[in-house]
Design brief:
The structure holds 2 protein chains of 2 kinds.
Chain A lengths: L2 H6 L3 H7 L5 H10 L2 E3 L5 E3 L1 H12 L3 H23 L4 H12 L6 H16 L3 H7 L7
Antiparallel strand pairs in A: 1-2
Chain B lengths: L5 E7 L3 H12 L4 E5 L11 H8 L5 E2 L5 E3 L21 H7 L3 H12 L3 E2 L7 H12 L4 E3 L1 E2 L22 H10 L3 E4 L1 E9 L2 E9 L2 E12 L3 H8 L8 E14 L14 E3 L7 E6 L3 H5 L6 H8 L5 E8 L5 E6 L2 E5 L4 H20 L4 E4 L5 E3 L2 H5 L12 E9 L16 E3 L14 H15 L3
Parallel strand pairs in B: 1-2, 1-11, 2-8, 4-20, 11-21
Antiparallel strand pairs in B: 3-4, 5-7, 6-13, 9-10, 10-11, 12-15, 12-16, 12-18, 12-20, 14-15, 16-17, 18-19
Classes of the chains: A mainly alpha, B alpha+beta.
């Protein structure tokens, strides 16, 4: 199922977990960069043109600000992927929350990396996806 | 198993150095108790999502230094369980400069113990063959490596714990030590050292949610440079200083034909052209979740690249950083104060450039540098632009091969700060970074310190 369609059925509470951690500008850019626009918590409109405009706007920012926003984009993207991509255990959910909490701290880069790692482990363990990648997986 | 109340020797940590020390001491008749905070995996399944959380201590441990991540093994076997099996010595000239010539004999002994061999040419995977070809095309000095495999079938899951137990590693030494009477206590976290009148009295900790205390005349710290140093800070003011790392970056080559970088021995060659500059280049395996775990960009961008993962080849660039850090204990957890130095960032830029050149010379169609702002290169001329592109603080650099932290307060037998009976036996004893994978050195240090305790 396309991710955008899945986003439509995301409960408001799930987004609520992610959005308060990010700046409003980052949320807007995140939505735009992925061709998504949040009209409210439950409705999303696909606008590729807006996404391209957002990318151009992002590229015009100073490097430091751009890196920070890209980090926020990744966090949002990863968090959403995690929440929709796999049924997480309570332990994994706790780790997601911890990583999100650290996004505003000096341990920001490791927190982002941890979030991405959690996402990858959750998403890339599915046999169908691995077969699609041509990954043989465990061998006798 | 509950820890006993008394032991002749307590070893903290069941990784390469602790297991080697346990092996030697138990053979010499000493009563050894090994305390390991982790547990053995339920089963070795070759599956990333199942194995990595069991083999790594706390996943990725965040530090107070932005942009740096630490990886540590946990459970019996420690880091050796998830290592790629590379067994390299620190050059003799470096050891002599340190005044550590005794380690040369220890290397001889542990290489025999671990059945260390030259990796045969016939065992080179497609990934390693391409790496070798790229280096030779540039006339770089390339080296076939040595390892401790004795019944390898080339499955390629070394970093997920070898389900076939095809290497003579710390896990096997531990098993043999237990057969000679050593007691291994899993799930036992040591929280403090007991010292009285400059003499070790024992250790205390928590196991199964209950506090324990073991009296011992000898305590060997073998929990890795970060953890051993942190534990020693409780009894030695000088402990915890001089910690060093090897910040590591990655370079991906996208080839026109399949590489299948997860099959075969992941790392059997290295480029040693730049070792004198503190730069080590070597290929590494690309399993999907691990790869997706550090590729930059959105989920969709990663999926796009992962769709081509059969044709991806990975090179890791590790650099010896001259900057030293410090580890302290914060509520029983290590708090590392360390920032990658400017010279290490420059070395990383150089190493990344050379790795990109190497993949392009080997026939890669494109090279991807997964910085926070990814760089995509198509030609050798493109690669030259990287030389001045230093990694930014936002780039997620993995720190590999930690060392130091106790070098300045230990004597030649690893005794810490003149405290009778308290020894370190791991890479915490090393004075500086060397750009050489340290696992064989960890075995050798465990061997040497155990030898000193038994008068051998």
């Amino acid at each position: 199922m396309p991710r955008r369609a899945l986003l439509l059925v995301l409960p408001a509470g799930a987004l609520g977990l992610l959005l308060p951690r990010l700046t409003p500008e980052a949320v807007l850019l995140a939505a735009l960069c992925q061709g998504l626009f949040f009209l409210n918590d439950e409705t999303i409109v696909d606008t590729l043109q807006l996404g391209q405009a957002a990318e151009a706007r992002l590229d015009a920012l100073p490097l430091g600000r751009r890196l920070q926003l890209r980090g926020d984009l990744r966090a949002l993207d990863l968090g959403v992927a995690l929440l929709i991509g796999a049924r997480l255990s309570s332990g994994a959910r706790a780790e997601v929350r911890l990583a999100l909490q650290h996004l505003r701290s000096t341990a920001r880069a490791p927190a982002l990396a941890r979030l991405q790692e959690l996402c990858a482990l959750a998403c890339y363990g599915h046999p169908n996806l691995l077969a699609e990648l041509g990954y043989a997986g465990p061998t006798p | 198993m509950r820890p006993p109340v008394r032991a002749e020797v307590v070893i903290v940590g069941a990784g390469p150095s602790g297991s080697t020390a346990a092996w030697r001491l138990s053979r010499a008749g000493a009563g050894v108790v090994i305390l390991e905070r982790g547990h053995a995996p339920h089963a070795l399944t070759d599956r990333e999502a199942e194995m990595l959380p069991q083999l790594r201590l706390g996943g990725t441990t965040a530090t107070i230094a932005p942009g740096l991540m630490l990886e540590s093994g946990t459970g019996p076997g420690g880091g050796s369980t998830m290592s790629l099996g590379v067994c390299q010595r620190i050059p003799e000239a470096t050891l002599r400069r340190w005044g550590s010539s005794a380690l040369i004999k220890a290397y001889d002994d542990v290489e025999a113990l671990l059945s260390v061999r030259d990796i045969p040419r016939s065992d080179l995977s497609r990934l390693n063959t391409l790496f070798l070809q790229g280096g030779r095309a540039l006339s770089y000095r390339m080296r076939r490596l040595r390892d401790n495999r004795d019944s390898c079938v080339g499955a390629g899951f070394c970093a997920l714990g070898c389900a076939r137990q095809a290497r003579v590693d710390a896990g096997r030494l531990l098993h043999e030590a237990q057969q000679h009477g050593a007691h291994l206590i899993q799930g036992a976290k040591v929280t403090g050292l007991q010292v009285r009148k400059r003499r070790i009295q024992g250790v205390e900790g928590i196991a199964d949610g209950r506090q324990f205390s073991i009296k011992a005349d000898r305590v060997i710290l073998a929990a890795g440079a970060v953890m051993s140093s942190m534990l020693a800070t409780g009894v030695s003011r000088g402990a915890g200083h001089g910690l060093f790392f090897h910040p590591t970056a990655r370079v991906l080559g996208l080839f026109p034909a399949p590489v299948v970088g997860w099959e075969g021995i992941p790392r059997s060659v290295a480029c040693v052209q730049f070792v004198d500059d503190g730069i080590w280049l070597s290929p590494s395996s690309t399993h999907p979740a691990t790869l997706a775990g550090w590729l930059p960009g959105s989920t969709e961008a990663r999926a796009h690249l992962l769709g081509r993962m059969r044709s991806l080849a990975l090179c890791e660039v590790a650099v010896a950083d001259s900057a030293v850090g410090r580890v302290r204990s914060h509520r029983g957890r290590p708090q590392v104060d360390y920032a990658v130095s400017a010279s290490a960032r420059a070395a990383l830029a150089k190493g990344v450039t050379e790795a990109a050149r190497l993949w392009l010379a080997a026939g890669a169609r494109r090279v991807v540098i997964p910085w926070a702002e990814p760089a995509i290169l198509n030609t050798l001329a493109d690669a030259e632009l990287l030389r001045t592109a230093l990694p930014s603080p936002e780039d997620p650099l993995i720190s590999r091969w930690p060392g130091g932290g106790l070098a300045a307060v230990s004597d030649e037998h690893g005794e810490i700060d003149g405290i009778t009976g308290l020894h370190a036996a791991d890479t915490a004893l090393l004075p500086e970074a060397t750009a050489v994978p340290p696992i064989l050195t960890a075995y050798a240090l465990g061997w040497r310190v155990a030898g000193a305790l038994t008068g051998q």
